[in-house]
Write a structure and sequence with these properties.
Oligomer: single chain
Shape: globular
Radius of gyration: 16 Å
Helix content: under 10%
Order of helices and strands: EEEEEEEEEEEEH
Structural class: mainly beta
Strand order of the largest sheet: 9-7-6-5-10
């Protein structure tokens, strides 16, 4: 999936390439992304998701592009939102029963999430790989 977005650093058009593949060099590979969505009260919010499956289909000459995602917005509990040693943001995956189908147009840009092998379903947001993600993570932590 090719995702184009306007950089908040230099206002230039930037591209992320996102993938999900059940057999990428013998292992499952699922990229993650930041998406725009609405909460249960209809209020705009941004959350991180893991992309599990992407597809498109046609109905009466209309093409629909969807993806199956696992939301990473479950409460982190007593761990808080930021790792004190690394300074990285904690994210906790929702249970598998919370999988959602979303429009591919909801994806803002790709995100690097690394599993926390000490805690199942926990991930670290690596926001140091580019300035856009660093500024985005800083802004999201302020809410």
């Amino acid at each position: 999936l090719k995702v184009n977005y306007e950089s908040i650093v230099d206002w230039k058009l930037t591209t992320d390439y996102l993938r999900c593949n059940p057999n990428f060099h013998g292992c499952e590979h699922c990229d993650c992304a930041l998406i725009h969505t609405l909460d249960k009260d209809g209020i705009n919010k941004h959350i991180f998701v893991r992309i599990l499956f992407m597809f498109k289909f046609m109905v009466s000459n209309h093409t629909f592009e969807l993806t199956l995602v696992l939301p990473m917005d479950a409460p982190t509990g007593s761990r808080g939102g930021v790792d004190h040693d690394l300074g990285l943001t904690y994210l906790h995956a929702q249970p598998l029963a919370s999988l959602e189908f979303i429009s591919l147009q909801s994806i803002i840009y790709g995100a690097l999430l690394v599993p926390d092998h000490d805690h199942d379903c926990d991930f670290f947001l690596v926001d140091l790989i580019d300035m856009d993600m660093f500024l985005c993570a800083k802004l999201l932590r302020s809410f």
